[in-house]
Amino acid sequence: MNAPESVDVVIVGAGFAGLTAAHDLVDQGYSVVVLEGRDRVGGRVFTGEIAGVKVDLGGTWVAKEHDAIRAIADQVGCTTVKQFAEGRSTLWLAGKRSTYKGTIPRLSPAALVNMTRIQMALDKLAKTIDVEAPCNSPRAAELDAISLEGWLDRKRARTTTRALMTIVTKVEFGCQTSDVSLLHMLRTIRAFGGFDHMLDAEGGMQDARYVETTQEIAVRYASLLGDRVHPNSPVRRIIQDADGVAVDTDTAQFRAEYAIVTTATEHRAGIEFEPALPEKTQGLIRSWGLGALSKAFVAYDKPFWRADGLSGEALTDTGTVFITFDVSPSPNGPGVLMAFCDPRVFDVHQPETRKAQVVKQLTDLYGPEAARPIDYIDHCWNTDSFARGGPNPVVGPYATTRYGSVLTEPHGRVHWAGTETAGEWTGSMNGAVLSGQRAADNVARLLPATEPLDRKGAYS
Ligand SMILES: Cc1cc2nc3c(=O)[nH]c(=O)nc-3n(C[C@H](O)[C@H](O)[C@H](O)COP(=O)(O)OP(=O)(O)OC[C@H]3O[C@@H](n4cnc5c(N)ncnc54)[C@H](O)[C@@H]3O)c2cc1C
Question: Which residues participate in substrate binding (predicted)?
């Protein structure tokens, strides 16, 4: 091992949280290194290619209000495209296919009344949640003592309401309604701007995506940091004493005044801390594990479903695929459908079987033309060899009130960032950026003052 390199701050993780923290510190004149365990930057954003079109295998959409991530994308010259949502959406529930307009599917009058009642109750409760400190919310203990499923039982949710709520927890967290506490669900609804905003394309969380892909934003943003970013550098150990921190990878040691760890809460467990983390933080790591989610993309000559008046958006409670979206680059083709897949019945299979499952379901949803794809790819986040998981932590009953208070509490010289530690927009790319900004501000306040570099000077 070479002599340790010394910087002001070591940042662990080159997702949006880590890259933002690094930029903010560099802008203020501090020296940083970013250590990333994977061979690429971006973390939970990752680009794939199908039929010559770049697609987002992980994080995809931004809402209009996502100013923080949008500012970075603007800085590096990436451009949004509205999520295609024209036409009717498709619903496959209990073996029956139908189409509908708007956010809530066309249901029988009784099912619609039930769904609307549950949604209104969730929105009302979500308004009482303190997103920054959910354990301080007025009824936190009571709301955290029950799973979403337990609450749906209590509210006499009908089968259809349960099926739709399961689709929501599968896509937001990568889990079932029984796995997540009501409090965590409410925090997410609040952080995502309300139930409709969470699920809507037009004007909601799925409003727009990036032509160049979201990982391309991260790649370009990381390139501005030059050789401060070290891929293939999993951090194994962080030792701290009164003088600073020593951060070990397999091949190098870095010394710094402070460290900012931006991994998902679960992946903090991959690092040995000396002195050891307090019991409450260890409990957080144990109980805030990521869910699991997989995505498939199927390409066709043209987005043929549009000619049938369909938006390419579908919800289904049967089989592997549970949501689809149209992410075609143009009406002239190729047509590309993005399908969210349930990892429990998807990841175990070989690629050919996975493809056959997805194509069969798309054929049920969109007709015989869907049986003739020209290309296919998928990505199973829970089988990644490093930092595996899904979109967000599955936070079960009691885990927020027991451990949530330490989400951002520094461990001496080690500070925490990552989308999980954000308040507003927690669980999104925008939340990741906001968390990186917060951690960088907090650490900069502890460091000796410097002459801020102008932006051009900082990166030269
Ligand atoms: C399938 C999927 C769909 C999603 N859809 C959306 C969406 O449409 N819109 C949206 O806003 N968000 C979406 N998200 C969530 C969004 O991608 C994340 O919130 C965001 O990218 C998290 O950024 P982060 O920097 O906090 O964490 P990450 O991106 O996870 O970055 C943390 C980094 O730390 C690294 N790391 C872990 N352990 C170590 C270690 N020991 N040493 C060194 N490095 C380490 C990891 O490899 C990773 O690169 C989705 C996520 C997934 C998986």
Answer: 340
